[in-house]
Write a structure and sequence with these properties.
heterodimer, A: mainly beta, four-stranded antiparallel beta sheet, 56% strand, B: mainly beta, six-stranded mixed beta sheet, five-stranded antiparallel beta sheet
Chain lengths: 115, 105
């Protein structure tokens, strides 16, 4: 148990489907993140939320839509994805002043396969 | 985006040997983190280094932050099979591509 819970752990979806990934933390962190991890590539930052406000969108296609209803929950809504979107999607949380060295707590990820 | 380069990409050693993994950048970081990731799981934070020249020890793992705060290293002494995993360095939302370490029994 890492303190950050992601569901589902595995997801297979067709290109015309709509699905959502869920992330939950009760660590008292106020910053939450979505990262994409593809084979043989560094983790790619997708979205950053600080105190429920989106503070960074790293040029992510609109078929990925984040939602942060409160500081403990983060969603990633998916629609009309492409096969190249298949990857491990990781949620993380931290204290908001990350550059002071608090580091991330990651969830176990959702392994997404788009068919 | 600040680029972090890790080397080597892969490392396979025998139990009991020592190893060093490097993380380099042309950018200055206020802090760097090291993580270990096992298959099917998210990365787990090992350490954060903040001060240039800083050395931190975590049992058999020694982490060093370069004086100019542009690079870092991770040294493992007497590696064990349980040290097997993907080691990632990170700073300012950016991650290196990682070093896959395999320790053979």
């Amino acid at each position: 148990e890492t303190g950050v819970t992601q569901t589902p752990r595995h997801l297979v979806m067709g290109m015309t489907n709509k699905k959502s990934l869920k992330c939950e933390q009760h660590l008292g962190h106020n910053a939450m993140y979505w990262y994409k991890q593809s084979a043989k590539k560094p983790l790619e930052l997708m979205f950053v939320y600080n105190f429920k406000e989106q503070t960074e969108n790293n040029s992510v296609p609109s078929r990925f839509s984040p939602e942060c209803p409160n500081s403990s929950h983060l969603f990633l809504h998916l629609h009309t994805l492409q096969p190249e979107d298949s990857a491990l999607y990781l949620c993380a949380s931290s204290h908001p002043t990350r550059d002071r060295g608090y580091g991330y707590t990651f969830g176990s990820g959702t392994r997404l396969t788009v068919v | 985006t600040q680029l972090l380069e890790q080397s080597p990409q892969f490392l396979s050693i025998q139990e009991g040997e020592n190893l060093t993994v490097y993380c380099n950048s042309s950018s200055v970081f206020s802090s760097l983190q090291w993580y270990r990731q096992e298959p099917g799981e998210g990365p787990v934070l090992l350490v954060t280094v903040v001060t240039g020249g800083e050395v931190k020890k975590l049992k058999r793992l020694t982490f060093q932050f370069g004086d100019a705060r542009k690079d870092s290293s991770l040294h493992i002494t007497a590696a064990q099979p349980g040290d097997t995993g993907l080691y990632l360095c990170a700073g300012a939302h950016s991650f290196g591509a990682g070093t896959t370490v395999t320790v053979r029994a």
